[in-house]
Specification:
Layout (H helix, E strand, L loop, with lengths): L3 E4 L2 E3 L5 E7 L9 E6 L6 E6 L5 E3 L7 E6 L4 E6 L8 E7 L4 E2 L3 E5 L2
Parallel strand pairs: 2-11
Antiparallel strand pairs: 1-3, 3-8, 4-5, 4-9, 5-6, 7-8, 9-10, 9-11
């Protein structure tokens, strides 16, 4: 069964914005921490942001001030708003549910001029 359904990736120019969405199938997710990871070409997977059940957030230094993770528990959805995008942000982005180790399939973000 599909547990995490991602959308919102695409091709953008430097300085542009994208909003990634991750719809969680089931009600368990709204009570727990969710996370976004990314894997750039030739790089290891890295943690981008986390958000707790009450909305407390943490960010990687590389995205702090530019990205914002949020959630809408009524919609079982977690978002990653990405602003001021740099070509270094080019990566496959994954939604993650740490409690049970669930992953989305990944959505590609490409920043290119």
């Amino acid at each position: 069964q599909v547990r995490l359904v991602e959308s919102g990736g695409g091709l953008v120019q430097p300085g542009g914005s994208l909003r990634l969405s991750c719809v969680a199938v089931g009600d368990i997710y709204k009570h727990n921490t969710m996370a976004w990871y990314r894997r750039a070409p030739g790089q290891q997977r890295e943690l981008v942001a986390t958000i707790t059940n009450v909305g407390a957030t943490n960010y990687a230094d590389s995205v702090k001030g530019r990205f914002a993770i949020s959630r809408d528990n009524a919609k079982n959805t977690v978002y990653l708003q990405m602003n001021s995008l740099k070509f270094e942000d080019t990566a496959t982005y994954f939604c993650h549910f740490p409690l049970l180790g669930y992953w989305g399939q990944g959505t590609q973000v490409t920043v290119s001029s």
